[in-house]
Amino acid sequence: MALNRYRLQHLVKQKKRGAIKASRLLARPDRLIGLILLGNNFVNNLAAALATVVAIRLAGEQAIFAATLILTLVVLIFAEVTPKTLAAIKPEVLAFPAAWVYTPLLKVFYPLVWIVNLITNLLLRIVGINVKKIKEESLNKEELKTIVADAENLMPPRYQKMLLGILDMETASVEDIMTPRNEIIGIDLEEPIESIIANIKATPHTRMPVYKKSIDRVIGFLHIRKVIALASSEELDKQHITDNLIKPFFIPENTPLHKQIQCFKTEKLRIGLVVDEYGDVQGLVTLDDLLQEIIGELMVEEPDVTPQKDGSYIVDGSVTIRELNRITQWELPTEGPKTLNGLIIEFLENIPETGTSVNLYGHKLEIIKCDENTVKIVKFHPAS
Protein backbone atom coordinates (compact mmCIF):
# COMPACT_ATOMS: atom_id res chain seq x y z
CA MET A 1 0.00 0.00 0.00
CA ALA A 2 3.02 2.31 0.41
CA LEU A 3 4.12 1.94 -3.21
CA ASN A 4 4.41 5.14 -5.22
CA ARG A 5 1.64 4.67 -7.77
CA TYR A 6 3.34 6.80 -10.44
CA ARG A 7 6.63 4.95 -10.14
CA LEU A 8 4.65 1.71 -10.20
CA GLN A 9 2.96 2.73 -13.47
CA HIS A 10 6.40 3.54 -14.92
CA LEU A 11 7.73 0.10 -13.94
CA VAL A 12 4.64 -1.59 -15.38
CA LYS A 13 5.31 0.15 -18.72
CA GLN A 14 8.84 -1.25 -18.53
CA LYS A 15 7.24 -4.71 -18.07
CA LYS A 16 8.76 -5.46 -14.66
CA ARG A 17 6.95 -8.67 -13.69
CA GLY A 18 6.83 -7.95 -9.96
CA ALA A 19 5.43 -4.48 -10.65
CA ILE A 20 2.78 -5.90 -12.99
CA LYS A 21 1.56 -8.33 -10.32
CA ALA A 22 1.61 -5.64 -7.63
CA SER A 23 -0.36 -3.31 -9.91
CA ARG A 24 -3.02 -5.97 -10.52
CA LEU A 25 -3.36 -6.56 -6.78
CA LEU A 26 -3.69 -2.82 -6.08
CA ALA A 27 -6.43 -2.53 -8.72
CA ARG A 28 -8.74 -4.04 -6.09
CA PRO A 29 -7.30 -2.90 -2.71
CA ASP A 30 -10.32 -4.29 -0.85
CA ARG A 31 -9.42 -7.83 -1.93
CA LEU A 32 -5.72 -7.35 -1.19
CA ILE A 33 -6.37 -5.95 2.27
CA GLY A 34 -8.90 -8.72 2.93
CA LEU A 35 -6.34 -11.39 2.03
CA ILE A 36 -3.50 -9.81 4.06
CA LEU A 37 -5.62 -9.25 7.17
CA LEU A 38 -7.15 -12.71 6.87
CA GLY A 39 -3.71 -14.30 6.99
CA ASN A 40 -2.43 -11.80 9.56
CA ASN A 41 -5.26 -12.38 12.02
CA PHE A 42 -5.19 -16.13 11.50
CA VAL A 43 -1.47 -16.30 12.31
CA ASN A 44 -1.76 -13.96 15.31
CA ASN A 45 -4.69 -15.89 16.79
CA LEU A 46 -2.96 -19.22 16.14
CA ALA A 47 0.23 -17.94 17.80
CA ALA A 48 -1.76 -16.72 20.82
CA ALA A 49 -3.52 -20.10 21.15
CA LEU A 50 -0.24 -22.04 20.86
CA ALA A 51 1.52 -19.73 23.35
CA THR A 52 -1.31 -20.28 25.84
CA VAL A 53 -1.20 -24.07 25.45
CA VAL A 54 2.62 -24.14 25.80
CA ALA A 55 2.56 -21.86 28.86
CA ILE A 56 -0.07 -23.98 30.63
CA ARG A 57 1.78 -27.24 29.95
CA LEU A 58 5.14 -25.84 31.06
CA ALA A 59 4.22 -23.77 34.12
CA GLY A 60 0.46 -23.84 34.60
CA GLU A 61 -2.12 -21.09 34.31
CA GLN A 62 0.05 -18.56 36.18
CA ALA A 63 2.39 -18.44 33.15
CA ILE A 64 -0.34 -17.27 30.73
CA PHE A 65 0.27 -13.57 31.47
CA ALA A 66 4.04 -13.92 30.95
CA ALA A 67 3.50 -15.84 27.72
CA THR A 68 1.08 -13.17 26.48
CA LEU A 69 3.60 -10.42 27.27
CA ILE A 70 6.47 -12.25 25.55
CA LEU A 71 4.34 -13.08 22.51
CA THR A 72 3.17 -9.46 22.25
CA LEU A 73 6.75 -8.20 22.21
CA VAL A 74 7.85 -10.82 19.68
CA VAL A 75 4.94 -10.10 17.33
CA LEU A 76 5.30 -6.34 17.78
CA ILE A 77 9.03 -6.30 17.00
CA PHE A 78 9.40 -9.05 14.41
CA ALA A 79 5.99 -9.11 12.73
CA GLU A 80 4.79 -5.50 12.95
CA VAL A 81 7.21 -2.63 13.60
CA THR A 82 10.35 -3.94 11.85
CA PRO A 83 8.80 -5.25 8.60
CA LYS A 84 6.30 -2.39 8.31
CA THR A 85 9.01 0.22 8.87
CA LEU A 86 11.10 -1.48 6.18
CA ALA A 87 8.07 -1.56 3.88
CA ALA A 88 7.39 2.14 4.43
CA ILE A 89 11.01 3.08 3.64
CA LYS A 90 11.66 0.52 0.86
CA PRO A 91 8.23 -0.63 -0.32
CA GLU A 92 9.44 -2.17 -3.57
CA VAL A 93 11.87 -4.47 -1.70
CA LEU A 94 8.97 -6.25 -0.01
CA ALA A 95 6.01 -5.52 -2.28
CA PHE A 96 7.28 -7.06 -5.52
CA PRO A 97 8.39 -10.42 -4.02
CA ALA A 98 5.23 -10.49 -1.87
CA ALA A 99 3.07 -10.02 -4.97
CA TRP A 100 4.26 -13.43 -6.21
CA VAL A 101 2.96 -14.96 -2.97
CA TYR A 102 -0.27 -12.99 -2.66
CA THR A 103 -1.42 -13.67 -6.24
CA PRO A 104 -1.76 -17.49 -5.87
CA LEU A 105 -3.01 -17.14 -2.27
CA LEU A 106 -5.77 -14.83 -3.47
CA LYS A 107 -6.91 -17.49 -5.94
CA VAL A 108 -6.85 -20.22 -3.28
CA PHE A 109 -8.71 -18.24 -0.61
CA TYR A 110 -10.87 -16.22 -3.00
CA PRO A 111 -14.23 -17.60 -1.74
CA LEU A 112 -13.38 -16.66 1.87
CA VAL A 113 -11.96 -13.27 0.85
CA TRP A 114 -15.06 -12.66 -1.31
CA ILE A 115 -17.38 -13.27 1.63
CA VAL A 116 -15.34 -10.96 3.89
CA ASN A 117 -15.26 -8.24 1.20
CA LEU A 118 -18.99 -8.62 0.54
CA ILE A 119 -19.84 -7.91 4.17
CA THR A 120 -17.24 -5.11 4.38
CA ASN A 121 -18.41 -3.41 1.18
CA LEU A 122 -22.03 -3.56 2.32
CA LEU A 123 -21.05 -1.82 5.55
CA LEU A 124 -19.12 0.82 3.58
CA ARG A 125 -22.11 1.44 1.31
CA ILE A 126 -24.15 2.28 4.38
CA VAL A 127 -21.83 5.26 4.97
CA GLY A 128 -21.92 6.23 1.27
CA ILE A 129 -18.70 4.63 -0.03
CA ASN A 130 -18.76 2.45 -3.15
CA VAL A 131 -15.42 0.65 -3.43
CA LYS A 132 -15.93 -0.21 -7.12
CA LYS A 133 -16.44 3.44 -8.10
CA ILE A 134 -13.36 4.84 -6.39
CA LYS A 135 -11.23 6.55 -9.04
CA GLU A 136 -7.51 6.01 -9.40
CA GLU A 137 -5.26 8.45 -7.61
CA SER A 138 -4.69 11.59 -9.69
CA LEU A 139 -2.92 14.91 -9.33
CA ASN A 140 -4.28 18.36 -9.97
CA LYS A 141 -2.11 21.12 -11.43
CA GLU A 142 -1.18 22.68 -8.09
CA GLU A 143 -0.14 19.31 -6.63
CA LEU A 144 1.96 18.61 -9.72
CA LYS A 145 3.63 22.02 -9.34
CA THR A 146 4.47 21.17 -5.72
CA ILE A 147 6.06 17.88 -6.81
CA VAL A 148 8.16 19.61 -9.48
CA ALA A 149 9.16 22.38 -7.05
CA ASP A 150 10.33 19.77 -4.52
CA ALA A 151 12.30 17.77 -7.11
CA GLU A 152 15.47 19.85 -6.71
CA ASN A 153 17.72 16.80 -6.36
CA LEU A 154 16.21 14.96 -9.32
CA MET A 155 16.71 17.50 -12.13
CA PRO A 156 18.83 20.56 -12.97
CA PRO A 157 17.31 23.88 -11.78
CA ARG A 158 16.89 25.14 -15.35
CA TYR A 159 14.68 22.16 -16.24
CA GLN A 160 12.74 22.60 -13.04
CA LYS A 161 12.03 26.24 -13.90
CA MET A 162 10.98 25.24 -17.43
CA LEU A 163 8.46 22.71 -16.12
CA LEU A 164 7.05 25.20 -13.62
CA GLY A 165 6.82 27.78 -16.41
CA ILE A 166 4.84 25.35 -18.57
CA LEU A 167 2.47 24.55 -15.69
CA ASP A 168 1.96 28.27 -15.06
CA MET A 169 1.03 29.04 -18.65
CA GLU A 170 -2.55 27.83 -18.30
CA THR A 171 -3.33 30.34 -15.55
CA ALA A 172 -1.58 33.31 -17.17
CA SER A 173 -2.80 35.48 -20.04
CA VAL A 174 -0.98 37.61 -22.63
CA GLU A 175 -1.80 40.63 -20.47
CA ASP A 176 0.58 39.26 -17.82
CA ILE A 177 3.66 39.26 -20.07
CA MET A 178 2.98 41.90 -22.73
CA THR A 179 5.14 44.96 -23.30
CA PRO A 180 2.90 47.81 -22.04
CA ARG A 181 1.54 50.32 -24.51
CA ASN A 182 3.78 53.15 -23.24
CA GLU A 183 6.92 51.02 -23.82
CA ILE A 184 6.13 49.95 -27.39
CA ILE A 185 8.77 51.13 -29.84
CA GLY A 186 7.25 51.69 -33.28
CA ILE A 187 7.37 53.78 -36.43
CA ASP A 188 5.08 56.78 -36.77
CA LEU A 189 4.61 57.49 -40.49
CA GLU A 190 3.63 61.06 -39.63
CA GLU A 191 7.21 61.79 -38.54
CA PRO A 192 9.90 62.99 -40.97
CA ILE A 193 11.67 60.22 -42.89
CA GLU A 194 14.98 61.24 -41.27
CA SER A 195 13.56 60.45 -37.80
CA ILE A 196 12.13 57.17 -39.06
CA ILE A 197 15.50 56.10 -40.53
CA ALA A 198 17.27 57.00 -37.28
CA ASN A 199 14.68 54.97 -35.36
CA ILE A 200 15.18 51.95 -37.61
CA LYS A 201 18.97 52.09 -37.26
CA ALA A 202 18.82 52.38 -33.47
CA THR A 203 16.18 49.72 -32.73
CA PRO A 204 17.29 46.41 -31.15
CA HIS A 205 14.12 44.71 -32.45
CA THR A 206 13.64 42.74 -35.68
CA ARG A 207 9.99 43.74 -36.10
CA MET A 208 8.31 47.07 -35.37
CA PRO A 209 4.68 48.19 -35.51
CA VAL A 210 3.98 50.95 -38.03
CA TYR A 211 1.19 53.41 -37.28
CA LYS A 212 -0.08 56.92 -38.00
CA LYS A 213 0.03 59.32 -35.04
CA SER A 214 -1.28 56.76 -32.51
CA ILE A 215 -0.51 53.08 -31.91
CA ASP A 216 -4.29 52.54 -32.07
CA ARG A 217 -4.03 53.34 -35.79
CA VAL A 218 -1.50 50.65 -36.57
CA ILE A 219 -1.34 49.64 -40.22
CA GLY A 220 1.11 46.73 -40.03
CA PHE A 221 4.44 45.33 -38.82
CA LEU A 222 7.73 46.03 -40.53
CA HIS A 223 10.52 43.43 -40.64
CA ILE A 224 13.63 45.57 -40.22
CA ARG A 225 15.74 43.19 -42.32
CA LYS A 226 13.74 44.13 -45.42
CA VAL A 227 14.61 47.83 -45.24
CA ILE A 228 17.86 48.03 -43.24
CA ALA A 229 20.00 48.19 -46.40
CA LEU A 230 18.03 51.16 -47.76
CA ALA A 231 18.04 52.81 -44.33
CA SER A 232 21.83 52.50 -44.13
CA SER A 233 22.22 54.18 -47.52
CA GLU A 234 19.66 56.87 -46.66
CA GLU A 235 17.56 55.80 -49.67
CA LEU A 236 14.58 54.60 -47.67
CA ASP A 237 11.26 56.37 -48.15
CA LYS A 238 7.80 55.91 -46.65
CA GLN A 239 6.53 54.09 -49.75
CA HIS A 240 9.17 51.38 -49.25
CA ILE A 241 8.00 50.99 -45.67
CA THR A 242 4.32 50.61 -46.55
CA ASP A 243 5.15 48.20 -49.39
CA ASN A 244 6.92 45.84 -46.97
CA LEU A 245 4.36 45.78 -44.17
CA ILE A 246 2.95 42.59 -42.67
CA LYS A 247 -0.74 42.63 -41.81
CA PRO A 248 -1.22 43.48 -38.09
CA PHE A 249 -2.38 40.68 -35.79
CA PHE A 250 -4.55 41.50 -32.77
CA ILE A 251 -4.84 39.45 -29.58
CA PRO A 252 -7.60 39.79 -26.93
CA GLU A 253 -6.02 40.74 -23.60
CA ASN A 254 -7.40 37.71 -21.71
CA THR A 255 -6.06 35.11 -24.13
CA PRO A 256 -4.26 32.31 -22.16
CA LEU A 257 -0.57 31.92 -22.96
CA HIS A 258 -0.82 28.28 -24.04
CA LYS A 259 -3.55 29.15 -26.54
CA GLN A 260 -1.53 32.08 -27.90
CA ILE A 261 1.51 29.87 -28.51
CA GLN A 262 -0.72 27.53 -30.50
CA CYS A 263 -2.21 30.50 -32.36
CA PHE A 264 1.23 31.86 -33.31
CA LYS A 265 2.16 28.38 -34.54
CA THR A 266 -1.02 28.00 -36.60
CA GLU A 267 -0.84 31.49 -38.11
CA LYS A 268 2.96 31.29 -38.54
CA LEU A 269 3.42 34.61 -36.74
CA ARG A 270 5.89 35.93 -34.18
CA ILE A 271 4.30 39.18 -32.99
CA GLY A 272 0.89 40.63 -32.18
CA LEU A 273 -0.80 43.61 -30.53
CA VAL A 274 -2.87 43.06 -27.38
CA VAL A 275 -6.23 44.88 -27.44
CA ASP A 276 -8.95 45.39 -24.83
CA GLU A 277 -12.70 44.95 -25.27
CA TYR A 278 -12.94 48.34 -26.99
CA GLY A 279 -10.23 47.52 -29.53
CA ASP A 280 -7.67 49.89 -27.99
CA VAL A 281 -4.07 48.67 -28.03
CA GLN A 282 -2.86 47.77 -24.54
CA GLY A 283 0.48 46.21 -25.34
CA LEU A 284 2.58 44.02 -27.58
CA VAL A 285 3.45 40.31 -27.35
CA THR A 286 6.07 38.35 -29.28
CA LEU A 287 6.83 34.67 -29.57
CA ASP A 288 10.05 35.38 -27.64
CA ASP A 289 7.97 36.70 -24.72
CA LEU A 290 6.01 33.45 -24.63
CA LEU A 291 9.14 31.32 -24.83
CA GLN A 292 10.69 33.29 -21.96
CA GLU A 293 7.84 32.10 -19.76
CA ILE A 294 9.10 28.56 -20.31
CA ILE A 295 12.88 28.76 -20.60
CA GLY A 296 13.56 32.01 -18.73
CA GLU A 297 15.26 35.17 -19.91
CA LEU A 298 16.71 34.89 -23.41
CA MET A 299 19.09 37.78 -22.77
CA VAL A 300 20.90 38.75 -19.60
CA GLU A 301 19.60 42.16 -18.61
CA GLU A 302 19.73 44.31 -15.53
CA PRO A 303 17.50 42.50 -13.01
CA ASP A 304 14.20 44.08 -11.94
CA VAL A 305 14.41 42.31 -8.57
CA THR A 306 17.74 42.62 -6.74
CA PRO A 307 18.25 40.72 -3.46
CA GLN A 308 20.34 42.47 -0.80
CA LYS A 309 22.73 41.00 1.77
CA ASP A 310 20.36 41.79 4.65
CA GLY A 311 17.54 39.74 3.05
CA SER A 312 15.69 42.72 1.58
CA TYR A 313 14.85 43.26 -2.11
CA ILE A 314 15.19 46.34 -4.31
CA VAL A 315 12.43 46.03 -6.89
CA ASP A 316 11.61 48.02 -10.02
CA GLY A 317 8.01 49.23 -9.92
CA SER A 318 7.37 47.99 -13.47
CA VAL A 319 8.12 44.34 -12.64
CA THR A 320 5.14 42.05 -13.09
CA ILE A 321 3.57 40.44 -10.03
CA ARG A 322 4.02 36.99 -11.57
CA GLU A 323 7.76 37.54 -12.07
CA LEU A 324 8.14 38.92 -8.53
CA ASN A 325 6.31 35.92 -7.08
CA ARG A 326 8.43 33.55 -9.14
CA ILE A 327 11.72 35.05 -7.94
CA THR A 328 10.80 35.52 -4.27
CA GLN A 329 8.37 32.58 -3.83
CA TRP A 330 5.76 35.01 -2.48
CA GLU A 331 2.04 34.84 -3.16
CA LEU A 332 1.05 38.40 -4.01
CA PRO A 333 -2.35 38.51 -5.78
CA THR A 334 -2.25 38.33 -9.58
CA GLU A 335 -5.97 38.69 -10.34
CA GLY A 336 -5.98 42.50 -10.47
CA PRO A 337 -3.07 44.80 -11.44
CA LYS A 338 -0.28 43.07 -13.34
CA THR A 339 2.67 45.19 -12.13
CA LEU A 340 3.99 46.08 -8.68
CA ASN A 341 3.34 49.75 -9.38
CA GLY A 342 -0.31 49.02 -10.17
CA LEU A 343 -0.72 46.78 -7.12
CA ILE A 344 0.66 49.44 -4.73
CA ILE A 345 -1.49 52.21 -6.23
CA GLU A 346 -4.62 50.05 -6.08
CA PHE A 347 -3.84 49.05 -2.48
CA LEU A 348 -3.26 52.65 -1.31
CA GLU A 349 -5.91 54.14 -3.64
CA ASN A 350 -3.54 57.02 -4.42
CA ILE A 351 -0.02 57.66 -5.75
CA PRO A 352 2.36 57.50 -2.76
CA GLU A 353 5.21 59.86 -2.00
CA THR A 354 8.87 58.87 -1.73
CA GLY A 355 9.59 57.44 1.72
CA THR A 356 6.08 56.04 2.26
CA SER A 357 6.02 52.71 4.13
CA VAL A 358 3.38 50.13 3.27
CA ASN A 359 2.38 46.72 4.62
CA LEU A 360 1.41 45.10 1.32
CA TYR A 361 -0.35 41.77 1.89
CA GLY A 362 1.97 40.90 4.76
CA HIS A 363 5.15 42.30 3.15
CA LYS A 364 6.67 45.49 4.53
CA LEU A 365 8.01 47.82 1.84
CA GLU A 366 9.26 51.37 1.42
CA ILE A 367 8.84 53.60 -1.64
CA ILE A 368 12.38 54.57 -2.64
CA LYS A 369 11.58 56.54 -5.79
CA CYS A 370 8.45 57.67 -7.60
CA ASP A 371 7.36 60.38 -10.02
CA GLU A 372 4.06 62.13 -10.58
CA ASN A 373 2.06 59.08 -11.60
CA THR A 374 4.10 55.90 -11.04
CA VAL A 375 6.12 54.08 -8.40
CA LYS A 376 9.65 53.61 -9.75
CA ILE A 377 11.68 51.76 -7.10
CA VAL A 378 10.56 49.87 -4.00
CA LYS A 379 12.47 48.26 -1.16
CA PHE A 380 10.95 45.15 0.46
CA HIS A 381 12.23 44.70 4.00
CA PRO A 382 13.29 41.25 5.28
CA ALA A 383 10.49 39.12 6.70
CA SER A 384 10.42 39.43 10.47
Chain-averaged pLDDT:
85
Give the N-to-C terminal Cα separation: 42 Å
Number of strands: 13
SSE pattern, N- to C-terminal? HHHHHHHHHEEHEEHHEEHEEHEEHHEEE
- Total domain units: 3
Report low-confidence residues grouped into runs of 5 or more: none
Name the overall outline.
Answer: elongated
Description:
By secondary structure, the protein is of the alpha+beta class. It folds into three domains: 5-133, no CATH class; 174-295, CBS-domain (Roll); 305-380, Uridine Diphospho-n-acetylenolpyruvylglucosamine Reductase, domain 3 (2-Layer Sandwich). Helices cover 51% and strands 16% of the residues. The strands form three sheets. The chain has a five-stranded antiparallel β-sheet with strand order 9-10-13-12-11, with helices on one face. The longest helix is centred in the first third of the chain and has 31 residues, at 29-59. The model has no long low-confidence stretch (mean pLDDT 85).
List the helices and strands and how they pair.
Elements: H1 5-13, H2 17-27, H3 29-59, H4 64-89, H5 91-108, H6 110-126, H7 141-149, H8 157-168, H9 174-177, E1 179-180, E2 187-188, H10 193-202, E3 207-212, E4 214-223, H11 228-232, H12 238-243, E5 245-246, E6 250-252, H13 257-267, E7 271-275, E8 281-286, H14 287-295, E9 305-307, E10 313-316, H15 321-328, H16 340-348, E11 357-360, E12 363-370, E13 375-380
Parallel strand pairs: 2-3, 6-7
Antiparallel strand pairs: 1-8, 3-4, 4-5, 7-8, 9-10, 10-13, 11-12, 12-13
Helix pairs in contact: 1-2, 2-5, 3-4, 3-6, 4-5, 7-8
